[in-house]
């Protein structure tokens, strides 16, 4: 709960072993964030993982009512459902949904390439498997646009879109030495503009 509350105030990366509760933190944060704006849950790796996370978030939020007494509306965004969408379809989806769960490339297209979604309308961006957020990935482009928009628009701290990263490994599999780990960890935190929040006291694995 503490990590979920912190995610609404500043950008953080929740680092913990698989099964330690990272998705629960994201669900709790999303439950709170939808009172301020929409939530995007970005899955960089695969449509299958995106679907699995969609089911978890949908089921969790189905039992959690908003202030108006209604459950949050969760929508799955993958190549199966949205690969041919244009501006009208994205606008309709956004109007009918509180939480969007989908793959990184579709969010990159909607946020960065075409501008069909406005980052300012979102209170929270959750990045699953965020150690994939570097380089020229779709997630990296979304984050760069977010950080640029917020720096140029100078939004008040309380109004800024927050970023919550989830990972079991801050450096990913490419880190072979301690130096590699330190460099990869810093690159990730720079991309996320975030601090590390170990989940339930668990420290991330080191090489």
TrEMBL record:
GO cellular component: cytoplasm
Residue span(s) of domain Helicase ATP-binding: 3-188
Any one GO MF annotation of this record: ATP binding
Signal peptide region: none
Cited InterPro entries: DEAD/DEAH_box_helicase_dom (IPR011545), Helicase_ATP-bd (IPR014001), P-loop_NTPase (IPR027417), RLR_Helicase (IPR051363)
SMART domains: DEXDc
Name this polypeptide is given: Helicase ATP-binding domain-containing protein
Lineage of the organism: Eukaryota, Sar, Alveolata, Dinophyceae, Gonyaulacales
